[in-house]
Amino acid sequence: MHYYIITGASSGLGIETARLLLRPDQHVVSISRTSPISLVRQAEQTGGLFTHIGQDLSKTDELPGCIDRLMEVIAKSSVQPTSVCLIHNAANAAPFKHLDRHTLDEISASLNLNLLSPVLFSSLWIKRVQPLHVPKKLIFISSGSAEYPMAGMSLYCSAKAGLNMLVRCLHMEQRGLPYGVQVAAVDPGMMDTPMQTAAREAREEQFPSSAFFRQSRDNGLLRTPESVAHLLVQWMSDPASWSEGKRDTIHKL
């Protein structure tokens, strides 16, 4: 049984990736605040295994308990895992405004979800899956925002840049270990997701770049989450994507 754990699988790229991975020999575990009902129905129809773990990932103090629930799902299965893959997809770029206009609560919530939560979750997950002598993959959904700064998105850009560096460090730490975790980040490019909608609809006096996001949509530059999910699953399944000889761990779809 192949296990795929996806954070933020209730919409956008997360839910579309989960749909493609829901197959009879695979168990998809969604971790998000809301349960993706359509995935529950799909699993019932196709025979794929699906489990939802309700968790607000910005509440970092609850992550150890969330990991416990995740590992219980694997432990209670009558079929031993043949591989495990964790995909960090959950993120939120809003609210869009200059750093000095954020409240302290907004700053904490943004950095907790976009940076601290995936860092802590990854640390806990790596420790718990170490005894499993099966292939393990850890994938972070990155963004062009990790490389290209934009006024009004300082928190999101900084978090994504931090995760890219984390991926590079983890790759070095895990490389060569017996049954070590294969680590990579994937930049999916610009997609028409709820996050893009929020950026387009942001007030221009607070976020002048909202015009850029509207133009990107109007000029047909946004890919659909469905099309990107197909590229992601194809990339994940390609052995060449995980070659030990690869020097970089940040990939663009």
From TrEMBL:
Pfam families reported for this sequence: adh_short
Keyword Cell division: no
Domain Ketoreductase residue range list: 2-189
SMART domains recorded: PKS_KR
UniProt GO MF annotations: oxidoreductase activity
Subcellular localization(s) per the UniProt record: Cytoplasm
PANTHER family per the UniProt record, alphabetical: SEPIAPTERIN REDUCTASE
Protein name per Swiss-Prot or TrEMBL: Benzil reductase ((S)-benzoin forming)
Organism the protein comes from: Paenibacillus allorhizosphaerae
Gene behind the chain: yueD_2
